[in-house]
Amino acid sequence: xxxxxxxxxxxxxxxxxSVEVEEVMRSCGGAVQGVKDRGVYLNRADDGxxxxxxxxxxxxxxxxxxxxxxxxxxxxxxSQERTVFTMDTFPLGSEDSFEVSQMQRDSSGHSxxxxxxxxxxxxxxxxxx
Length: 129
Description:
Structural class: mainly beta
Strand order of the largest sheet: 4-3-2-1-9-8-7-6-5
Strand content: 35-45%
Largest sheet: 9 strands, antiparallel
Helix content: 10-25%
Number of strands: 9
Radius of gyration: 16 Å
């Protein structure tokens, strides 16, 4: 989970809005429990949340039924660029909504991975291209 956090944490923007992806700590202290991205809390213990060391993730329901569900995915193309997909699904007969945002790293903030790269310490996930 640490490599994922290095890639995703920090400031992002899509030209119109800025987003801060933040680590969320356990309330009792200790380890990072998840991240908050675009107002959504992504708990690493949640079966519907799958993360990858490169900074990509997907989040959604583990089952589909007749209730509105949200699905969110972030595909990391480097430590500086990612594409975020969000979709709300509704029961049959209703309209679904779909949104795609191309996010860039804020110039004021680098990811932890970028800071290591700047120091000459290239993380394994970054060197496998």
